[in-house]
């Protein structure tokens, strides 16, 4: 698989005003199984604004989930829906260990978690909380899970919650994913058409069009430009939250 991948996070204006750091984290990596099968793994986590260690929580969720997925891929048996519960349990155990070390609680590390594991002819997705995953394949284009708004306004569920497994959504398919985007809830109003529950193509298409024409060696510089866009007035006028975006394509022009 030859993927062109860019990713960036940008602090929200409300976080700057309140003196908080950016509490979003994203990770992207390509993993290879013993049989040579390759998997693209994308992770996004948004630390809860009310959590004392939100920044550390989102980072720990992504690093631990990536390590768990890497261990599964290394076994050479592929990845499947039943693995996801173990990955989430691994994240929760890591968070609890970190909390115990400083006399805190898992709630102090509250964060969402979105994940995509893309193979050749296969895709596995899971999500706890808001934010969204958008995919394009020869057969389908759309939002994998509509953002989870939680039981109350301006609230969502977290991977650190005791009942996270009850609020975990999982989907898998035997399909060739050609393009994928993952983003935190700070971009939902820009990236999604809430009336139709579809991706807002005027947001995605210009960026994917550039990415399709970009050489893999040029993606690092393009990621820098993406970060600048996420921190631009045209974005900050629409959202004051932290913003994270991963874009990946294997289409070419």
From TrEMBL:
Cited SUPFAM superfamilies: PP2C-like
Residue ranges of every copy of the PPM-type phosphatase domain listed in the record: 11-231
Pfam families: PP2C_2 (PF13672)
InterPro entries cross-referenced by the UniProt entry: PPM-type-like_dom_sf, PPM-type_phosphatase-like_dom
Protein name per Swiss-Prot or TrEMBL: PPM-type phosphatase domain-containing protein
Upper classification of the organism: Bacteria, Pseudomonadati, Pseudomonadota, Betaproteobacteria, Burkholderiales
């Amino acid at each position: 698989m030859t993927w062109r991948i860019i990713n960036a996070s940008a602090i929200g204006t409300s976080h700057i005003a309140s003196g908080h750091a950016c509490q979003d984290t994203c990770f992207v990596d390509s993993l290879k199984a013993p049989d040579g099968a390759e998997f693209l793994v994308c992770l996004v986590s948004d630390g809860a604004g009310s959590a004392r260690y939100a920044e550390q929580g989102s980072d720990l969720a992504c690093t631990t989930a990536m390590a768990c997925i890497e261990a599964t891929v290394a076994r050479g048996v592929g990845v499947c829906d039943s693995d996801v519960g173990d990955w989430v349990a691994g994240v929760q155990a890591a968070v609890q260990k970190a909390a115990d070390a400083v006399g805190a609680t898992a709630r102090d590390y509250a964060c969402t978690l979105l994940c995509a594991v893309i193979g050749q002819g296969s895709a596995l997705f899971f999500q706890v909380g808001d934010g969204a995953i958008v995919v394009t394949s020869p057969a389908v284009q759309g939002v994998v899970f509509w953002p989870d708004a939680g039981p109350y306004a301006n609230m969502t569920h977290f991977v650190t919650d005791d009942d996270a497994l009850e609020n975990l959504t999982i989907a898998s398919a035997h399909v060739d994913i050609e393009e994928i985007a993952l983003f935190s809830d700070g971009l939902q109003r820009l990236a999604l058409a809430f009336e139709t529950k579809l991706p807002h193509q005027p947001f995605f298409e210009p960026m994917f069009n550039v990415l399709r024409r970009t050489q893999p060696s040029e993606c690092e510089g393009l990621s820098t430009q993406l970060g600048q866009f996420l921190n631009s007035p045209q974005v900050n006028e629409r959202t004051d939250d932290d913003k994270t975006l991963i874009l990946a394509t294997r289409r070419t022009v």
